[in-house]
Specification:
A hairpin with a 5-residue loop joins strand 1 and strand 2. Strands 3-2-1-4-5 form a five-stranded antiparallel β-sheet, with helices on one face. It is built from two helices and five strands; from the N terminus they run H-E-E-E-H-E-E. The protein has 139 residues and is an alpha+beta fold.
Length: 139
């Protein structure tokens, strides 16, 4: 075997290894993205006063909001809403400043085009505030 043939065989093996490495990297990247997209970290409910709801962002416009979970506003729950959830977006716009119950899914990570928070609201309903007691009638 001459030197040029050995070099050619070496580069062919290196090319195969390089292509396999690129394919493996792309599969791992795709698997990571699919895992983040499909698998939720947690699910649950949060209640509080809806104090902020806005569309923000320079490159990616996302819907973001904040829920105050205490009298003084010391506990703030930040969340994002998918633009595909038009019914939820409309309810949140209508219920600003009111006491609400949010159903959410927490993701392992949020991509920039999803929003700033890993918490994504999937449903919202109005609730009565536990801090405001109805006036009792005096007989």
């Amino acid at each position: 075997m001459d030197a040029q043939n050995k070099t050619s065989v070496f580069f062919q093996k290196m090319k195969r290894i390089f292509v396999k490495s690129i394919v493996l990297f792309l599969l791992l990247f795709l698997g990571y993205f699919v895992f983040i997209f499909i698998v939720p970290y947690s699910e649950g409910y949060r209640s509080g006063e809806l104090i902020k709801f806005s569309r923000k962002g320079m490159v990616f416009k996302t819907w973001e909001g904040e829920l105050s979970q205490g009298i003084s506003g010391a506990q703030i729950f930040s969340f994002s809403v998918s633009p595909k959830k038009e019914e939820v977006l409309q309810k949140l716009e209508d219920l600003q400043g009111r006491y609400v119950k949010l159903q959410y899914i927490e993701r392992y990570k949020a991509f920039p085009w999803w929003g700033d928070s890993a918490y994504f609201i999937i449903d919202v309903e109005e609730e009565s505030s536990p801090f405001l007691k109805p006036k009792q009638q005096v007989d």
